[in-house]
Amino acid sequence: MNLKPRFIDIHVVQPVPYANLNRDDTNSVKSMLYGDVLRTRISSQSWKRAIREHFQETLGENALRTRRIGERVAEVLHERGWDKALAERAGAHVAAGSSIKWEVAKGKDKQPITNKVLTNALVYLSEDAVEDLADIAEAHKEELTTDFTGKGKSKPESALKGKIDNILIKRNGVINLFGRMLTEVDQANVDGAVQVAHAFTTHTTEVELDYFAAVDDVTEKKGDETGSGHMGTAEFSTGTFYRFATIDLKELTKNLSDDSATALNAARELVGQFLLSFIESLPQAKKNSTAPHTIPHLVHVAVRSDRPLSFAAAFEEPVRSAGHGGFVGRSVEGIDAYAQAANTLLGPDRVLHAAHASLQFDKLEHLGERHPSFETLVTAAVDFALAEAPQ
Predict the structure, then answer these.
(1) Residue 361: pLDDT over 50
(2) CA–CA separation, 184 and 111 (whole Å)
(3) Residue range of the domain that includes 368
(4) Average pLDDT over the chain, rounded to an integer
(5) 280 shares a domain with 145
(6) Burial class for 20, CB neighbours closer than 10 Å (0-12, 13-18, 19+)
(7) Sorted alphabetically, which InterPro entries does this protein's record hold (predicted)?
(8) Is residue 344 scored above 90 in pLDDT?
(9) Which residues fall within 8 angstroms of residue 151, CB to CB, at 6 or more apart?
(10) What is the tally of structural domains in the chain?
(11) Which long-range contacts (CB under 8 A, 24 or more apart) does 77-84 make?
């Protein structure tokens, strides 16, 4: 499909209460220095995973990212009635049979584990592809019955390399949208059509330390000791976040199909669901102890003909709270003002469609038509963006 350049930008202002949605390796709140002040940050990888999981659950189209593809194939074979030990052997042979480099897994004692193979790279493939790999194992069952140790010259899986690689290059809608990096297998790379920015607070934030104690129920009942069963501290923060993502529709339709009608229908479904998943998803770290399940106060969607345009620069100077407190109102005002200034500077003709949905804020003048719901906002944007696509 020869689609004209089209980008759908989505901008979100979302307050999040006391939480730690994305921790670093020391369990600390992630942060960034921007405009010479400290902000709370949520990495794009963290939020993108939440988006992908919401997207897959809603759309019913799953993809798997793993180094343990052999174990997954073995599970499928076992579910089909194979003896467990034989299934593990075949799974290991299949995992070592592609063009991807691999190693034999090791236990806690650092000794190799027979019939357990790890690929050196995370393999990203559709769940359907796992079934296809299991089919290959079934078709060559007699050849894959030997234990796999990674040693020896006889490698029955070598003859299956072409068949296995052909499965690994398969795609589904999730992969066509988010992309895939797999350089070791020819034609497996897929340029992602989605770009997701790190979310950050529009204002200065500070990390808060929470001291907590856990009660030992038996000790409490007996009353024979004092003190808690466990004590510790954890980091949290609060803030109003700016979130941004963009979809390259031309790249997406190129990934999908040469059949214009098929690609157009698939693009409509994928883009619409991605935008809704971007709006509704939330990283899950510390959810049981914080339950920070907010929704955005503002979502602005724009269809552009030139290039994506983030509004992050609107918050290079941190937002200051209103006289009565709160950052949401002034953050939304900042989005509205920046949209006017940036679009005037670049030329308003580049914005083909603009609209927004919000919990309040009736007087936003530069974010296009106001929609009553996120669903109608997304539907209108997708319909407009794909209206000129050739059928």
Answers:
(1) yes
(2) 27
(3) 7-61+193-207+238-385
(4) 89
(5) no
(6) buried
(7) CRISPR-assoc_prot_CT1975
(8) yes
(9) none
(10) 2
(11) 77/134, 77/137, 77/138, 80/134, 80/138
* DSSP letters spanning 100-128: S-EEEEE-TTS-EEEEEEEESS-EEEEHH
Q: How far apart are CA 117 and CA 98, in angstroms?
A: 12
Relative to beta strand 123-126, strand 208-214 is unpaired
> Which residues share a beta bridge with 63?
126
Neighbour-count burial of 369, counting CB atoms closer than 10 A to its CB (0-12 exposed, 13-18 middle, 19+ buried): exposed
Helix (H) or strand (E) holding 92: helix 84-95
Give the pLDDT of residue 226. 60
Residue 223 domain-assigned? no
Whole-angstrom distance, CA of residue 264 vs CA of residue 52: 21
- The SS3 of residue 291 is coil
Q: Tokens for 269?
A: 């479904």
| Section 258-271 average pLDDT | 82
* pLDDT (0 to 100) of residue 2: 62
Q: Select from 121, 152, 168 the last residue of a domain.
A: 168
Question: Parallel, antiparallel, or unpaired for β 351-358 and 369-370?
Answer: parallel
Of the two residues 227 and 357, the one the predictor is more confident about is 357
Instruction: State how beta strands 298-304 and 369-370 pair.
Output: unpaired
Distances (CA, A) of 62 to 58, 88, 312: 10, 23, 32
